[in-house]
């Protein structure tokens, strides 16, 4: 769990250090916000609630929704998430750092690597898909 928040914590700590070294409060607030935005974007907060790989696979088999395997701090996962917008909640999101079975599922698809985002939709697995491809399957 802590690994998921590591990047966000480092960004917040850097923001605090930079803000505390400012002479007045306006540049301090701006500097802190400069670090706060990427901290939130690359934290688990920017993504829909993660489920386990077993739950995602079971639910996907029942209703046909795609399963997105991701990890915090991944710029490609963030790009996919932002491009999906509100529709991101229609897919099942599995954080591979919190779920070893999810990491194993990704390794099985990618030939031993944990390359994310990996999306499984209707039996088809795609590594780092074009967001348009996933939008068509939502």
Report on the architecture of this protein.
This protein has 138 residues and is of the alpha+beta class. The chain folds into two domains: 2-45; 47-137, 3-Layer(aba) Sandwich (Glutaredoxin). The protein contains six helices and four strands, in the order αααβαβαββα. The chain has helices at residues 2-20, 25-41, 53-63, 75-84, 100-110, 131-137; strands at residues 67-70, 92-95, 118-121, 124-127. A four-stranded mixed β-sheet has the order 2-1-3-4. A hairpin with a 2-residue loop joins strand 3 and strand 4. Helix 1 (2-20) packs antiparallel against helix 2 and helix 4 (75-84) crosses helix 6. The chain is elongated. 28% of the residues are buried.
SSE map:
Elements: H1 2-20, H2 25-41, H3 53-63, E1 67-70, H4 75-84, E2 92-95, H5 100-110, E3 118-121, E4 124-127, H6 131-137
Parallel strand pairs: 1-2
Antiparallel strand pairs: 1-3, 3-4
Helix pairs in contact: 1-2, 4-6
Structure, briefly:
With 138 residues, the protein is α+β, with helices and mostly antiparallel strands. The chain has helices spanning 2-20, 25-41, 53-63, 75-84, 100-110, 131-137; strands at residues 67-70, 92-95, 118-121, 124-127.
Please give a handful of descriptors for the protein shown.
2 domains, alpha+beta, Glutaredoxin, 138 residues
């Amino acid at each position: 769990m802590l690994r998921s928040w590591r990047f966000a914590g480092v960004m917040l700590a850097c923001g605090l250090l930079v803000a505390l070294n400012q002479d007045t409060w306006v540049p301090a607030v701006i500097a802190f916000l400069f670090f706060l935005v990427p901290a939130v974007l690359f934290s688990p907060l920017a993504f829909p609630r993660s489920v386990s790989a077993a739950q995602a696979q079971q639910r996907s088999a029942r209703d046909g929704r795609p399963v997105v395997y991701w990890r915090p701090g991944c710029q490609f996962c963030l790009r996919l998430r932002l491009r999906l917008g509100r529709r991101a909640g229609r897919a099942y999101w599995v954080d591979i750092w919190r779920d070893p079975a999810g990491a194993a599922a990704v390794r099985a698809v990618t030939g031993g690597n944990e390359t994310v985002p990996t999306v499984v939709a209707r039996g088809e697995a795609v590594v780092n898909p074009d967001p348009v491809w996933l939008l068509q399957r939502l």
